[in-house]
């Protein structure tokens, strides 16, 4: 304490010398109470040993546990009172005391507001609700108000002065600081005083006009700033529609730039929430014009969803018409799939019908039914297997079942022949309960006929094992392959089947250039493998999957469940 120039090591060394001296003193006082140890204690006095810190323990002096050292404060020296807590206490600076009369600090208020302790003192004085105190402090700092607003401590004083000051004083602040409002709004300390100023301007049109002129050329930069975006949101909330119209005009002109920014999208959502109907229409028109780009953006999609949440029936339909022709690709993307999902859930019958019909390659209006082609099946399988697209498929099934039964039946008629291709996938567990193939959910009556589907009514579509189908589920679009040997194939086989024996099939999987038969296997949208009892077909399927052939399914049981009459009938 007395030698502040000492280093940390020097302070520690001095402390240990004091502690050692205290131990010497303690030992000298305590030895008088120890019987028959004077000579030994004199011989082993701690001042004669190399380390003076713990003499009694280091040199084995036996101290009677029944005799305690003296506890009287009179026999102790001042050094014995020193401990770590007292060292910390004495090393800390003493509290400064301030005069109750602020007049004593005339000409020093600015410097005081830039120091933590004195700034707190000034804040307490301002909170006393004495107008004379506010006036005195205000007159002292008004010339440097812009500098104090961006100061780590001075900004707190400025906030209280803005809140406690009179309207004339706030007008004076605006006139002195208007040239720096935009830059101060983007400052980590200046943002809060500016928000407080906007909040307390009231209906003074002259001051609001000055603030508008100072900010309007910098709005895009402010909306993209971590601190400045809060100032823009404060203007939207506190100014009346006439005074904050300049913000909406800026957002319409710079919709993409603002809505696709991390902070800008939040400001635009606030503008939608607090705007009048006319102002909301401006934002909706801008979003509709740019919805293709916004729906794919990580931040812009939130603006589109927020517009859809306005519960205005015309908005979803307008967006669906604008996005027409893109729903399949949008459903496969992380961000845009959220927009498609919301259009299905909030758009009503017309939006559901348009989206589902587009996914089925059917005109949006009319009684035309979808034609089940391999290309359409591949698109639906891709959608159902996609981590984002499967949610769109679920929404299509759920919403159409409840609101547009005709579209629901049309969707099921196309989904039915491709369900086995997603058997065993996570998406199948989501789709199966809704498609009518489980006991809990029944398909609606009289679905539209689907061309090219050979299916016996009431026959179970799937077996208990993954990737297997029954004979009744074969369609005209499937390639049927017999993996038995040539002799077995010539005795009996499925009429439209081609023969690729098991060994040949496995060998062709590993060849860079396959033969003509195997090219058909690779090109087919779906291949049904069968053998005598299903064993070889499953081995071939499992082996081929390792080489990228995912279009293979097995006919359960092979030819065993079929008698000759059934085979001849086929």
Provide an overview of this structure:
- The chain is mainly alpha-helical.
- 55% of the residues lie in helices and 3% in strands.
- The chain has 34 helices and 5 strands.
- Strands 1-5-4-2-3 form a 5-stranded parallel β-sheet, with helices on one face.
- Helix 18 (264-274) packs parallel to helix 21 and helix 25 crosses helix 27.
- The radius of gyration is 42 Å and the shape is elongated.
Spatial strand order of the main sheet:
1-5-4-2-3
Mean pLDDT, all residues: 78
> How much helical structure, as a percent, in the residues?
40-55%
Q: What is the tally of beta strands? A: 5
Give the CA-CA distance, first to last residue.
106 Å
- Please describe the biggest sheet, giving its number of strands, its sense, and whether it closes into a barrel: 5 strands, parallel
Query: Given the helix and strand composition, which structural class is it?
Result: mainly alpha
Bin the strand percentage.
Answer: under 5%
Overall geometric form? elongated
Number of helices: 34
Low-confidence stretches: 4-9, 29-36, 46-94, 436-465
Evaluate the radius of gyration. Answer: 42 Å
């Amino acid at each position: 304490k007395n030698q502040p120039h000492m280093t940390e090591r020097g302070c520690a060394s001095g402390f240990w010398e004091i502690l050692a001296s205290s131990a010497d003193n303690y030992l000298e006082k305590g030895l008088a109470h120890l019987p028959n140890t004077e000579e030994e204690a004199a011989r082993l006095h701690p001042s004669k040993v190399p380390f003076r810190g713990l003499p009694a323990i280091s040199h084995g002096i036996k101290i009677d546990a029944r005799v305690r050292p003296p506890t009287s404060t009179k026999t102790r020296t001042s050094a014995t009172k020193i401990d770590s807590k007292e060292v910390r206490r004495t090393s800390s600076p003493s509290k400064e005391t301030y005069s109750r009369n602020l007049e004593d600090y005339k000409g020093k208020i600015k410097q005081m507001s830039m120091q933590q302790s004195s700034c707190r003192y000034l804040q307490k004085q301002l909170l006393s609700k004495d107008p004379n105190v506010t006036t005195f402090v205000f007159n002292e700092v008004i010339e440097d108000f812009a500098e104090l607003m961006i100061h780590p401590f001075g900004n707190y004083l400025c906030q209280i002065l803005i809140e406690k000051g009179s309207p004339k004083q706030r007008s004076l602040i605006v006139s002195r600081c208007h040239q720096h409002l935009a830059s101060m709004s983007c400052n980590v300390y200046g943002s809060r005083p500016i928000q407080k100023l906007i909040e307390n301007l009231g209906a003074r049109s002259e001051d609001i006009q000055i603030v508008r002129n100072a900010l309007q050329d910098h709005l895009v930069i402010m909306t993209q700033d971590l601190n400045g975006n809060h100032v823009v949101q404060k203007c939207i909330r506190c100014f009346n529609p006439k005074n904050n119209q300049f913000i909406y005009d800026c957002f319409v002109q710079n919709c993409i730039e603002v809505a696709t920014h991390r902070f800008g999208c939040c400001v635009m959502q606030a503008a939608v929430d607090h705007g009048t109907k006319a102002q909301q229409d401006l934002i909706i028109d801008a979003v509709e014009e740019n919805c293709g780009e916004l729906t794919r953006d990580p931040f812009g999609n939130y603006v589109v969803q927020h517009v859809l949440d306005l519960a205005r029936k015309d908005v979803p339909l307008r967006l669906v018409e604008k996005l027409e022709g893109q729903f399949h690709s949008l459903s496969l993307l992380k961000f845009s799939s959220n927009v498609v999902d919301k259009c299905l859930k909030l758009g009503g019958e017309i939006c559901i019908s348009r989206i589902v019909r587009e996914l089925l390659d059917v005109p949006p209006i009319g009684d035309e039914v979808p034609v089940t082609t391999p290309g359409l099946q591949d698109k639906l399988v891709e959608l159902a297997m996609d981590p984002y697209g499967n949610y769109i498929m679920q929404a299509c099934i759920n919403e159409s079942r409840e609101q547009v039964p005709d579209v629901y039946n049309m969707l099921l008629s196309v989904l039915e022949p491709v369900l086995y291709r997603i058997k065993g996938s996570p998406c199948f567990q989501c789709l199966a309960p809704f498609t009518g193939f489980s006991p809990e959910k029944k398909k609606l009556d009289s679905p539209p006929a689907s061309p090219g589907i050979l299916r016996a009514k009431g026959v179970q579509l799937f077996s208990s094992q993954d990737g297997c189908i029954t004979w009744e589920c074969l369609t005209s679009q499937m390639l049927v392959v017999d993996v038995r040997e040539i002799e077995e194939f010539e005795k009996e086989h499925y009429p439209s089947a081609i023969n690729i024996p098991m060994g040949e099939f496995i060998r062709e999987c590993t060849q860079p250039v396959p033969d003509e038969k195997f090219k058909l296997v690779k090109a087919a949208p779906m291949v049904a493998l069968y053998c005598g009892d299903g064993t070889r077909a499953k081995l071939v399927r499992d082996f081929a999957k390792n080489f990228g052939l995912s279009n293979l399914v097995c006919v359960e049981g092979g030819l065993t469940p079929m008698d000759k009459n059934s085979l001849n009938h086929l």
